[in-house]
Design goal:
Helices cover 57% and strands 23% of the residues. By secondary structure, the chain is an alpha+beta fold. It has 3 domains: 35 residues; 46 residues, SH3 type barrels (Roll), CATH 2.30.30; 47 residues. It has a 5-stranded antiparallel β-sheet with strand order 4-3-2-1-5. Strand 1 and strand 2 form a beta hairpin.
Length: 129
């Protein structure tokens, strides 16, 4: 009898933790796809940004650059992006450049270049020993 109660509790717990959240995600995705319209700036599941130009049933045409259109499945749309997407991509570009500069600094330290920042890093490692 006790085993049946444990099994029932486990089944309810699995339903609440796994099935309900998935159903919510599916409903949200369906609502997103239903709300798509021409001119929307979207992000696809493959990471492609573009503006919706035309619908053909379950296919949409995205303009990814001036004069460049690609054909994607309607279900491949992951999100509708707001008008500030250009600002966001500029911020991402700047952070990518900073990351590359940090990597270059680390590479130059490993190569033994002696600049002020590298000299500070080397003196810190000497203090640690």
């Amino acid at each position: 009898m006790g085993q049946l109660i444990i099994l029932a509790v486990f089944a309810v717990l699995m339903y609440v933790l796994l099935i309900l959240p998935q159903q919510k995600r599916v409903k949200a995705q369906q609502a997103l796809l239903a709300s798509l319209s021409e001119g929307d700036h979207v992000l696809t599941t493959s990471g492609v940004y573009g503006n919706i130009v035309e619908f053909e049933g379950s296919v949409i045409w995205l303009e990814v650059a001036k004069g460049v259109e690609i054909k994607v499945a309607r279900e491949a749309v992951q999100a509708i992006i707001g008008d500030d997407s250009d600002e966001t991509s500029d911020k991402n570009d700047k952070s990518d450049k900073n990351d590359k500069n940090d990597k270059n600094d680390k590479a130059s330290v490993a190569a033994g270049d002696s600049t002020d920042s590298n000299a500070d890093a080397e003196s810190e490692t000497d203090e640690d020993e």
